[in-house]
Design brief:
4-stranded parallel β-sheet, alpha/beta, about 280 residues, about 40% helix
Length: about 280
C-alpha cells in the first residue's frame, strides 16, 4: 500500500527535509487584525517575531476542514493511504479536523496521529513515518512504530513571559500570576495532551540545566537518542547550548529548530525547549 505522510506546519520541519522525504505540509494560521498568514508559507519565524514587535499579539487558527479534504483527495490520485501527524489535540483542534475530514473522503485511507506534543519532536514522528513509507512499509506498520516511539518521547520548555500562554488559554490565569509574582522560570511540559507546569525554577540558566539533566537521565541508558533544541528567536543561545550538550551526551544526535509563528504566539519570544526520543 503506497502511503503518503502529512504533517501540520507546527512541526517546523525545514522545507529541504520535507522535500527530501516527500512530506506534505498543511499550514496553521496566525492572524494580525484582518490579515491572516499561513505559517511556513506566507510568514517565516524571523518575520513573525518582527511583526509582533510592530503589531498587537496575533491570534491563531487551525486549517479549515475543507483544506484537509482537498489535500486528502489530491493525495488519493497517487496514494492508497495517508498518515497525518499533528500537534497535541489538547491544545489545538487540528487533529480533530483531520479526523473529521478523514470520514468525508472515501478515496483514500486516512490515519490521523496525535503526537501529544508539538514542534520538531512532532516532526520526528513525521520524518520516521516518511522514511518507512518510502521503504515500502504499510500504514498499519508505520502507526505501530509511531506509537512505540511515543513511549520514549519527552519535551520540556521554559518561557520568559507566561502572559502569552495565559492569554491564549493554554495556561490558567492563577498559574500565570503566581509565575510572574515570583519571577520564576517555570519548566513546562505536555501531560495528558495539555501544557502544564513541571517544576518552578528561579533562573533561566538553572531551568536550562534542569532540562539537560532530564535528558541525561534518559541518555544514561546508553541507547541512541535524537534530540532537538527549540528556540523562540534565540538562535545564538541555542547553538551555544547545543555545543555544550553534545559534549555531555555522545549517544544523542542533536539538531536545532524553532518555535514558529503559531507556537511562538502562545510562548512568546525568548522561549527555549528541548525534546527527544529514542532513535
Amino acid at each position: 500500500m503506497k502511503t503518503a505522510v502529512v504533517v501540520d506546519s507546527t512541526a517546523y520541519i525545514p522545507k529541504e527535509i520535507r522535500d527530501k522525504w516527500n512530506i506534505h505540509m498543511i499550514p496553521l494560521n496566525v492572524i494580525f487584525g484582518d490579515e491572516a498568514y499561513r505559517e511556513e508559507i506566507d510568514v517565516t519565524a524571523a518575520e513573525f517575531y518582527q511583526l509582533v514587535k510592530e503589531k498587537e499579539l496575533p491570534t491563531t487558527s487551525q486549517p479549515a476542514i475543507g483544506q484537509f479534504v482537498e489535500l486528502f483527495e489530491r493525495l488519493s490520485r497517487d496514494y492508497e493511504a495517508v498518515i497525518c501527524v499533528h500537534l497535541s489535540s489538547g491544545i489545538s483542534g487540528t487533529y480533530a479536523g483531520a479526523v473529521t475530514a478523514s470520514k468525508m473522503v472515501e478515496t483514500i485511507h486516512v490515519f490521523p496521529f496525535d503526537s501529544e506534543l508539538s514542534c520538531m519532536p512532532q516532526g520526528f514522528y513525521a520524518v520516521e513515518a516518511a522514511k518507512m513509507a518510502l521503504n515500502g512499509e504499510g500504514a498499519d506498520t508505520i502507526m505501530l512504530r509511531l506509537e512505540e516511539l511515543k513511549k520514549t518521547a519527552r519535551a520540556y520548555f521554559m518561557v520568559d513571559d507566561l502572559s502569552h500562554l495565559q492569554r491564549g488559554g493554554r495556561l490558567s490565569s492563577a498559574q500565570a500570576i503566581i509565575g510572574s509574582l515570583l519571577q520564576v522560570k517555570p519548566l513546562l511540559h505536555f501531560e495528558n495532551k495539555v501544557i502544564v507546569p513541571f517544576e518552578k525554577i528561579r533562573t533561566r540558566k538553572k531551568a536550562m540545566k534542569r532540562i539537560a539533566d532530564l535528558l541525561g537521565e534518559d541518555a544514561a541508558s546508553g541507547e541512541n537518542y535524537q534530540a532537538v533544541i527549540i528556540h523562540a528567536n534565540r538562535e545564538e543561545e541555542a547553538l551555544e547550548w547545543k555545543s555544550k550538550l553534545a559534549v555531555l551526551y555522545s549517544n544523542v544526535e542533536f539538531s536545532i529548530s524553532y518555535f514558529g509563528p503559531v507556537i511562538g504566539t502562545h510562548l512568546g519570544e525568548g522561549a527555549m525547549g528541548l525534546g527527544w526520543m529514542k532513535r
